[in-house]
Specification:
- It is a single chain.
- By secondary structure, the protein is mainly beta.
- It has two domains: 18-84, SH3 Domains (SH3 type barrels); 95-158, SH3 Domains (SH3 type barrels), CATH 2.30.30.
- Helices cover 0% and strands 50% of the residues.
- It is built from no helices and 14 strands.
- The chain has strands at 25-29, 33-37, 46-51, 55-62, 65-70, 75-79, 83-84, 95-99, 103-107, 116-121, 125-132, 135-142, 145-152, 156-158.
- The strands form four sheets. Strands 6-5-4-1-7 form a five-stranded antiparallel β-sheet, with no helix packed on it.
- A hairpin with a 2-residue loop joins strand 12 and strand 13 (145-152).
- It is elongated.
Amino acid sequence: MKTSGGKTGYVDRKYLTPAKVDDTGKYFVTASALRVRKSPTTESSTVSLLQKGDIITISQLNGDWGYVSSGAGSKGWVALKYVSTNRPASSGSSGSYTVTADTLNVRSGASTHYERTDALKYGASVRVTQLSGSWGKISYSKNGSARTGWVKMDYLKAK
């Protein structure tokens, strides 16, 4: 990285927010709700709605708009000012994930000190609804029942 004063150094990307999206790739939704539109204009019809923290893939740029696809199946155009390479810091961050551990313990709170309430197998799908440090509160379905709990984010992969 090079500062405006000409100094060169390194910084962790998670502490940076781009002023402008200038590349395709994975991004997080930063708006509380983001309309996915049929074409790159605010006059275009809304085809779906994304939530803060959802992960999207931008595959094409058109001015201040990006063509996206998300884990939730949304495809269309979004205003780039509402996306970032950084996960939103609010406790309402969310997104779809897959379990990467052979067995992942689900706990009643955000620490190994909390009771183990369940276990998920490799490949299970979950939705992160809240973050607390390196832990995520998840919602998931098991045996036809909706459940929630806390897991270490290290063992989840964004869809």
